[in-house]
Request: fold
Amino acid sequence: MTVKKVYFNSACPVCNAGIEGQRARMEGCAIEWRDINRTPDALAARGVTLDDVRRKLYVEDERGELEVGAAAFAALWRETPGQTWWGRVAALPGIRTVARWAYDAFAAGLYRWNRAKGRW
Reply:
């Protein structure tokens, strides 16, 4: 999988800081970074809502397939100089499951925190 597009939520300060750091590490990579708040209907044709991307990171590969959440981060890491091993480790069967659970729990808490702060 080669990541072509990253759909992220800049309204969340934690998410935005993570993406800014990732973008800096991936400078020079041919990736389109799409802030869902600037293009809220970017994934609507695929059944993905603005709220879905506020909840989790989405990446799209060269075939147009989407990875979500922890799998999206693993896909990014596999292409990030100095982090490719993180991507391979995060994709291992047992670790993939734990990473998904941890990401989903953290993302749910972050989503609730941002809503409570009135960010959306």
Notes: The longest strand covers residues 3-8.
